Task: structure prediction
Amino acid sequence: YGPPSNFLEIDVGNPQTVGVGRGRFTTYEIRVKTNLPIFKLKESTVRRRYSDFEWLRNELERESKVVVPPLPGKALLRQLPFRGDDGIFDDSFIEERKQALEQFINKVAGHPLAQNERCLHMFLQDEVIDKNYTPSKIRHT
Result:
């Protein structure tokens, strides 16, 4: 048997809603396991919110030749007042969004060209996203 082939596993889970009123938002845990040499960490866990996914998508569209899949929608109707549920903080909505974000990030990160983009590495593995970073390609070391 040869060594296992390259793998990149990304799970989105453990949603947590924080804040109050208009400052309220949900973050998701992004867990990465990989043996791809281009990633500096073989295992990492970070927290991201929806707007971080939007940032990543915009960066990839601007900087790479990758056709970036759409994100799950903004759920504007769920933010209307006087709904009978918690809107974007309703458990069923958070679960749907979590699954859609996991599909999105796995499609993106599975793309060989996207794997060379610094923004993807920051999104997946850096505790804090430096939104003032200099876009660049990651080189195999």
